[in-house]
Amino acid sequence: MVIKRFYYTMKFNNNQSFVTSWSGGKDSCFALMEAVKLNGKPKVLMNMMNENGLVSRSHAIPEKILHQQAIELGLPMITVPSTWNDYERNFINTLRQLVEEYEINSAVFGDIDFDSNRAWEEKVCEAAGITPILPLWKQDRKDLVIKMLAEGLHCVIVSCNQQLGEGFLGKKLDDDLINRLEELDADVCGENGEYHTLVVNCPLYRNELNVEFLAKRKHNNYWFLEMKLKP
Question: PANTHER family this protein is in (predicted)?
Fold first, then answer.
């Protein structure tokens, strides 16, 4: 099977249905938004959790909040507990299951410019017999963040490195915060691991998420913000 590789902006084919590799943060959300604008048909969201299945990897977003994001998007959410050692195998097996259950033929990813990430996505999609689509690929990082904000994406920093520190947790990404990140010589898009976000609202949501932010925790030199849905 020949897998077509689409990295740049394009129109989807009429039958192009997809799963979104969903982190809960800005890049995966905006990739979904862009794919929908390009006439893609979203069928399902997929998130890789830590091994106990309680929170997502990297962002540490609780499963209930991920599912609430899916509810607001009107899409099903598949969460997959996994160790790092089993990550790739579980990712591929889940993609194959989604192909059968949801009749998808492509997967949307929010990566921007790391060739190693793109190569991995090509690999897992080829194993599942579907097409990888990267709507944000090779866009300028700062321009991309500004575009996200201009198009109505609202997100909050929920994890960050020591360069930023715990004071950035819970901050809304806006023009002032972009300026502060630049003053610290941090990548404004967080592509070098400076920070991760939770999307609390976007044009595809039915309602804004109602989230309470709790304690700040440090784990392996990285800061995380605990959170829960408000009643």
Answer: DIPHTHINE--AMMONIA LIGASE, DOMAIN OF UNKNOWN FUNCTION 71 DUF71 -CONTAINING PROTEIN
> In whole angstroms, what is the distance from residue 151 CA to residue 224 CA?
27
Show Cβ contacts of residue 13 under 8 Å, excluding neighbours closer than 6 positions. Answer: none
pLDDT tens per residue, range 36-88: 998 899 999 999 998 888 899 879 999 999 999 999 999 999 999 999 999 99
User: Which residues are CB-contacts of 79 (< 8 A; sequence separation ≥ 6)?
Assistant: 47, 48, 49, 53, 56, 63, 66, 67
Residues 150, 219, single domain; the answer is yes
- Phi-psi category of 53—alpha, beta or left, where left has phi over 0 and alpha has psi -120 to 50? left
Decide if 109 contacts 47 (C-beta within 8 A).
Answer: no
> Quick one: tokens of 116?
């190693």
Domain that holds residue 154: 141-229
pLDDT band for position 202 (50/70/90)?
Answer: very high
Query: Based on the domain organization, do 112 and 192 belong to the same domain?
Result: no
pLDDT digits (tens, 9 = 90+) for 1-15: 334 444 444 556 667
Return the SS3 of 70: helix
Residues 44-79, buried b or exposed e (16+ Cβ, 10 A)? Answer: bbbbbbeeeeebbbbbbbbbebbbbbbebbebbbbb
Does residue 12 lie within any of the structural domains? no
In sequence order, what E strands does 22-89 have?
Answer: 41-49, 77-81
Residue 207 belongs to a domain with what CATH number? 3.90.1490.10
